[in-house]
Amino acid sequence: MNLFFTLTLLSTLFQSYNLLSRTEVDEHLLKGKEALALGKLDEALSHFHSAIEGDPNSFLTHYRRATVYLALGRVLQAMSDFTACLQLNPDFVQARYQRALLYLKQGKIREVGEDTALIADGYEGLSGILNKLNTLEEKHQQLGSVPDSDHTAIREIGGSILDISPWDIDLRLKRASANEQLGRNGDAVADLRVARVMLPGDTSVLLRLSLLYYSIGELDESLNSVRECLRLDQDHRSCFKHYKKSKKLNKQLERVEEFLSQEKYSEAAAELESSLSTETEVTEFIFKIKAKLCHTHRKLGALDDVLKWCEEALELRPEDLNVMCDKADQYIDSDMLDEALEDFRNAKEIDPEFRRAKEGIDRVLKLQKQASKRDYYKILGVKRTASKKEIVKAYRHLAQEWHPDMFPDPVDKARAEKKFIDIADAKEVLTNKEKREKYDRG
After folding, report:
1. What is the DSSP code (8-state) at residue 320?
2. Is the pLDDT at 280 greater than 70, yes or no?
3. Dist CA 95 CA 62 (whole Å)
4. At what angle do helices 169-181 and 203-215 cross, to 10 degrees?
5. Does pTM top 0.70 for this prediction?
């Protein structure tokens, strides 16, 4: 007897805990509508949740919550609420129309037909759905006759279908594969990003997306996707394998940037060359590494190394303007002005508005004009990138070598005097910051 009363009491308490009064339900509905009107979607959703918990048989509250879900982009939850609404009130045409629209966006032709058949002719927007439905049926017939090997046709016809049904997940994945086969990895990424939203727990989508991001050189995004895959399944072998490689390369490139920020160019170059052993296949990364090696060796001033890495980078991307200009700049530093001018002009031919190429051409022409006069850098035997300390050292050595007192023969003395004056003039200009900048500008 005591057990019976105990169970009855617990049941009563449980029911009173979970059920809201009519007043409380109405209050949540009012606050939900007010929040919705102010665009506070999360707050509105919370109130509609509470209202439905208190009164699960209100078709109108299910409808209102569905519209909030839609505004938040939560399509599956919206579809569930529209369906619940229609189960409670099959004649509520607004819900049926909205569900037909969702079915259309999902590419569910049969379900669209069933819902639109129950909507009276003349309902606003119905003709638009029916026209799109007819187009969808025609395009699916076309796609059905296309062999799986015709990736171009799948891409094109699939694109016209996805314009109408952007949430057709099967077709989205099929077009992603077609784009990948066509080498359009950026477009494949765009398709898989939509698929990831529609299939949030699908590790196969996350792995494909991570690999595609990697293939186009988007290392951070690749790592984000593969980490999400491992969060869902920490024992996923393929995701873990790709994660290890991506993480290693990322660490190497981070160290490169750290070395460059500290002007440790030799260490940066060594780390870059090491990273080429980590990634031997993906062209985008190999190009980026070689292009950075080209730029880094410029800081070290080694012509042969700069040309080696610049030319290897240009073999992968023949029209990369920055690498072309890096190479041209090194030619300038090595007093190879004709070669520099040719590279700058080639870059400008590809892009007439590329500022670096235009400025490079102007600079070379001024240097060539200077060369017809006295070239102070050549007189002192230093590079154009020489520091003040290097210039002073060269001056002292040459001034001692060409001092007129060292030449007893009158002819040699006259030649030495002229040389000595040139050396002194070069030193005066190149050790004065303002004079040197003016001289370098031509």
Report:
1. -
2. yes
3. 10
4. 30
5. yes
